UniProtKB/TrEMBL annotation:
InterPro entries: CofD, CofD-like_dom_sf, Gluconeogen_factor
Compartments (UniProt record): Cytoplasm
SUPFAM superfamilies: CofD-like (SSF142338)
GO BP of this protein: regulation of cell shape
Keyword Transmembrane helix: no
Name of the molecule in the record: Putative gluconeogenesis factor
Species for this entry: Goekera deserti
Organism taxonomic ancestry: Bacteria, Bacillati, Actinomycetota, Actinomycetes, Geodermatophilales
UniProt main location, coarse: cytoplasm
Sequence similarity: Belongs to the gluconeogenesis factor family.
Amino acid sequence: MSGPLAPRVVALGGGHGLSQALAAWRRITTELTAVVTVADDGGSSGRIRREMPVLPPGDLRMALAALAGPAARHQELAVLLQHRLGGWGALAGHPVGNLLLTGLMEVHGGDTCRALDVLGELVGACGRVLPMAEVPLDLVARVESVDPDDPRRSRTIRGQVAIASTPGRVRDIRVEPADPAVAPEVTDAIAAADVVTLGPGSWYTSVLPHLLVPQLHAALAATSARVVVVLNLVPQAGETDGFSPEQHLEVLSAHLDGVAVHAVVADEHSVVDRRGLLSAVRGYGAELILAPVAEPDGAPRHDPARLAAALAAVAGAR
């Protein structure tokens, strides 16, 4: 949808969760901006950020692929962006899109926003992709052991991959550097938005980091947009083991500090305690949207068409 009825939307997140949100939002509007985490330190992105002074490209690439235009040539390019090189040499395992985006960042003197816009034009992106910060971020978490006999009940874990793979429950998380530069395009998009969404995605490593960057947090606190939280369908191993939807919101609430939440979207079949979730959501002064947003085959993924229907209701779009 475009024109006067199209809501201006900013979707915050990273990885597969953000891709699912973008696949839904693109059915509703073309006035769409993805603001993407830049803390990935694993796989191809980790190799690139260790070897070159650029942002980790992986989550940015995935967002661009999710927004690729419907034309055959654009979809073919999206497939190419996601294609991982084979073999056993230095390039093995790198997605082509990571290398393209890294090259464009170099060509444009480290201007990641310009590089993303150029690649976005090539794939006919139905929206814009921007990084949440202008420098690579490191995540640092305090993880509590689940073993009662562990003499070190709490450990400080550094790095997105290490946090996600360390057994135990994450108790708190921070970003380094603590106050990174944020592109003005990002804060301008949040200020102009009608709707801002947080989630779905890895709660501690893709969703919460946006609230930990001071400039982003200030922009979210000041925006007049409706802020919508999309809850995950299931807890994530290594990050939110055993978390109920209410506990996800409790963790999020501890980081809001002036950021209003207007609506929470949850899958009606994934919620065990509806009354408890409704009470928690109302406690934040928000509206609970319970809808069938998961894949109909039972897979723990959001269905783009179903999620779009729920988001359209929240955004007041047709």
